[in-house]
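testing teh design pipeline on a random one, pls ignore if ur not involved
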């Protein structure tokens, strides 16, 4: 795996600049975009839709065969409300924000590129990403089930990079939380993902230290 010697700054809404940034690499990790959950439609359209298309198409044009796409758990947010149990990647999608709609577009586009161009497109439905989970607001705070630590996300990305011929996949990016709702069995089986952190443990440490 070749890593960049220099940092190349580009706007993903600029196709030519995006394409120029991708030469001589074997994979793309697409994390760019507007992360505001309440962003207006125009921002979703520009970044999550137009920008994501530019990343996928630029990668295809320069011969890159693997893209790891930062999707979001907001793609399946209503399933969590309905199911109250493990939510699997193959359940019907149900975004609850325009942000989630934009991420869902990226997943659908990823399947198209994987099947039409024989690429590996892996969508990571990342949960609540914090280095350390914030204090829960109440005993049933979703952070206790949705937290994804930096170490676990790094492991998920690295194992995805290291595994060939994945085709199109959707993996939930979440830590080994006691209250986890999302099913990660496909990531465990296909790439050997073994998250190590648990939000519950950090909650106990906070209580112990009076935080």
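output:
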């Amino acid at each position: 795996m070749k890593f960049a010697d220099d940092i190349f700054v580009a706007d993903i809404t600029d196709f030519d600049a995006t394409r120029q940034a991708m030469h001589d690499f074997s994979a793309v990790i697409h994390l760019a975009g507007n992360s505001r959950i309440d962003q207006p439609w125009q921002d979703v359209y520009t970044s999550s839709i137009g920008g994501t298309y530019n990343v996928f198409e630029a990668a295809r044009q320069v011969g890159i065969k693997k893209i790891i796409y930062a999707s979001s758990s907001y793609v399946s947010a209503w399933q969590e409300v309905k199911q109250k149990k493990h939510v699997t990647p193959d359940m019907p999608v149900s975004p609850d924000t325009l942000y989630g709609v934009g991420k869902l577009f990226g997943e659908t586009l990823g399947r198209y590129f994987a099947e039409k161009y024989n690429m590996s497109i892996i969508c990571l439905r990342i949960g609540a990403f914090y280095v350390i989970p914030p204090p829960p607001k109440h005993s049933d705070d979703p952070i206790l089930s949705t937290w994804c630590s930096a170490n676990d996300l790094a492991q998920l990305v690295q194992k995805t990079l290291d595994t060939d011929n994945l085709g199109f996949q959707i993996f939930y990016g979440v830590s080994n939380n006691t209250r986890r709702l999302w099913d990660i069995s496909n990531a465990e089986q296909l790439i050997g993902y073994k998250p190590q952190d648990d939000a519950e443990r950090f909650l106990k440490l906070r209580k112990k230290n009076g935080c």
